[in-house]
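Fold in C-alpha cells:
===
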Amino acid sequence: MNNKLLSTSEVCNKYNISQELLYEFKEEGLIYFPTKNIQQYLWDKKTLNKLSNILKKNTKNYKATTINNRRYLGNKYKLLPFIKEIVEKHCKNINIVADIFSGTGAVSSAFTDKVLITNDNMYSNYICHLAWFGTEKADINKIKKFIVDYNNTNPQNDNYMSINFSNTEFNKDVCKKIGFIREDIETKFNSKIINERERAVLITSLLYAMDKIANTCGHYDAYRKNGELNKKLELSVPLISNNLNKKNKN
C-alpha cells in the first residue's frame, strides 16, 4: 500500500465496513480518529494497519447506529458543517447550546462539547434526546446483550402492537416482535434491571429499527397501500457516550 491518505468513506469502501462500526471502535477506545483536514478525517498507513488488526479480531454479532440514521423529514445532519461554520464565525466563546424544536437532535450532536438543552414536543424525540445526550451512565455491555437477545427472539403471542397495527406499517410478525420488545423494555425498567437512560437507549434502538423498514413515506399517520411488508426487524446498538456534560437538559 502507498502512503496516500484515505478519507473515512474510502476506508469504509476498502474494508467493506460501515462508518458506524468505526465510531463504535472509537467509543470503545480501540482506535483513534486521525488528523482532521477541513471536514474529513485522513487515515494514514499506521492507523489503517491498526484498524486491519482490530477487524481481524472483531466477532460482533450486532450492528451499530449513529444519530443520523433515522428517516425524519427536516433532518439537518447534512447541514452540520455549514451550521458549525456559522456558529464559530458569529458566536464566539459560547458554553451553552439550546436546540429548540430539536427533532432528531442532529444539530445538538455537533455541539457535544457544550452544555446542551434539547426540546421537542414529540415524546419519541425526547426519548432519543435522553439516549443520545442524557447524563445518566448507561451500561453499554448490558445494552448490547439485550439488543442481541431481542434480535434473536421470535414471539408468537399477540400483543397491543399486533392486534392494532398488523399489516399497516409492518406485517403481523414484525408487529408481534415490536410489541414484545417494547413491553419487555418497560418490564426491565420497572424491575430496576435497567435505569432511565438505558431504557431510553433501548427504545431509541427500537424506534430506529422500525423506521428503517416502515411502510411509510416518513409520517406514521399514514401507510402505503400494497407496500412491502416482508422486511425483517433488526435492532442496532446506538453509539452513545457516557462522557457528556453533566449539565445537559432534555
